[in-house]
Amino acid sequence: MVNRQDDPINYDKTILEKAWHDALTPFEEFVHDEASSGLLLMACAVLALIAANTGLVHFYEALLHTKLSINIGSYRMSHSIHHWINDGLMALFFLMVGLEIKREVLIGELSELRKAILPIAAAIGGMVLPAMIYFSINSSTDASGGWGIPMATDIAFAVGVLALLGNRIPKPLIAFLLALAIVDDLGAVIVIALFYTAEINLLALGFAAFALALLIMINLLGVRKPLPYILIGLLMWLGMMESGIHATLAGVLTALTIPANSRFKAEVFANKINQLISRFKKAEQPERSYLANAEQQAIMQTMENYAHNMESPLQRVEHGIHLWVSFLIVPLFALANAGITVDFSQLGNMILHPVTMGISLGLVIGKVIGVFGFSWLVVKMGWSSLPDKVTMPMIGGVALLAGIGFTMSIFIAGLAFSDQLNYLLNAKVGIILASLISGVLGYLVLSKVTR
Predict the structure, then answer these.
(1) Model confidence over 279-315: pLDDT tens digits?
(2) DSSP class of residue 175?
(3) Residues 6 or more apart whose Cβ sits within 8 Å of residue 50
(4) What CA–CA distance (Å, rounded) separates 410 from 37?
(5) Neighbouring residues of 56: CB distance < 8 A, sequence distance ≥ 6
(6) E-only strand ranges, 52-175
(7) I need a surface site. Which of 53, 257, 265, 382 has the fewest CB within 10 A?
(8) Quick check: helix, strand or coil at residue 246?
């Protein structure tokens, strides 16, 4: 039997704590979470398809259409569970998207122009070509408004596929995919704001604008507690809900106002922590437990306060919501939206439908041509260069993975065809089919070129 006091590393450690014993960089933790979330997302999509095509379909649809209401005095907001997931919980997804965009622009792959040109060009190509392919197939129909659907890339799904290849994938290639997907998300947010907005209620929009002005003001005043930003962001979300502009955009706007700077410089922080560590060692009393040593407890609390202030509000919010978004909100979105009832006797006609074809070809072919072609062009022109250990065939594999448009594509499809349920069904078939093909082909290509 092991004496716990003789084993300081494993002393009082739960299984989960042991799993996270090794320190991870923010990049490694992000990739780990996205990979795990992608696998969970796949499982939820499969479960939704099973529920929609078995005897569970009536329970599944009844659950999604169950009404939930919020009453505050005379004010009442009542929506279905499906609506609360898509317009409520997904606002947190877009909050995380906004935080990722801001972080990448400030300190990530998009912070240096020459490095940023490659993923930006790849993302632009990966948005323009699919939209053009879809529009060329559906331009003469009333489904032409769905051109924004094949523009999106699902980060979690794509990184989940990369995770299956393990250490064979160089980190710079993962960073390229993440930067590409984040630019892609920014493009999707702009498209939603400009082209998928209903009639505007100016009074509600004015309330949302007032909330945004408050967010900017508290940022300029130096407020660093995340809570005021979240509370005012919630007010902006309520205004957006009533304005006609999609409420999830409140998440992105809130994220852009959250401070990204630290209180201390790294050198000052390191000196303070080193001083506290020295004091902690001097205060040690071998005959007494750490829990009974008031001075050591106070020093630990001070160290925690310094660490808390060293971390920016943006990091704290992103770290706080990332697991919730990755492992609860996005999987719930998949469960609520991937469940399409398919008449298998009509499956051939559904696949050949212009909406299905436009989305499938846009994601599978348009993404590859756009991402790979634009990447090759900027490298050939000398405007940018490939990341270390990354080759053009690897870019080709990532271009295939960019065709996995699941979460954002389904989200945009719901906006584009909110009152055209037949088109929405075909759109979901096209998204799922294309995402499956892109994921399998991307895995096969990358497994070959990284061998």
Answers:
(1) 888 888 777 776 777 787 888 888 887 777 778 888 8
(2) H
(3) 56
(4) 17
(5) 50
(6) 67-72, 75-80
(7) 382
(8) coil
Torsion of CA 117, 122, 127, 132, to 10 degrees: 110
**DSSP labels, 313-379:** HHHHHHHHHHHHIIIIIHHHHHHHHS-----GGGHHHHHTSHHHHHHHHIIIIIHHHHHHHHHHHHH
Which residues fall within 8 angstroms of residue 331, CB to CB, at 6 or more apart?
A: 37, 40, 41, 43, 44
pTM of the model: 0.77
Does residue 411 have a pLDDT over 80? Answer: yes
Distance between first and last Cα of the chain? 44
Residues in Cβ contact with 372 at an 8 Å cutoff, skipping those fewer than 6 apart: 122, 392, 395, 396, 399
- What's the distance, CA 44 to chain centroid? 16
Closest by CA position to 131, among listed 407, 365, 396: 365
The whole-angstrom separation of Cα 234 and Cα 96 is 14
CA dist list (Å): 111 to 28, 102, 105, 107, 178: 19, 10, 5, 5, 14
SS3 76: strand
CATH number of the domain located at residue range(s) 26-67+78-197+246-261+312-449 in this protein: 1.20.1530.10
pLDDT tens profile 25-65: 555 565 556 667 777 888 888 899 899 888 888 999 899 99
Q: Distance (Å, rounded) from C-alpha 88 to C-alpha 417?
A: 19
Residue 310 CA to residue 291 CA, distance in Å, equals 26
pLDDT given at position 15: 39
User: What is the predicted pLDDT for the residue at 11?
Assistant: 40
Torsion of CA 233, 239, 244, 245, to 10 degrees: -20
Cα dist from 394 to 162, 262, 389, 397, 427, whole Å: 11, 36, 10, 5, 29
Number of Cβ within 10 Å of residue 247's Cβ equals: 22
Maximal CA-CA distance, the chain: 84
* Predicted confidence (pLDDT) per residue in 174-214, tens digit: 888 888 988 888 888 888 888 887 677 888 889 999 999 99
Residues 6+ apart with CB under 8 A from 15: none
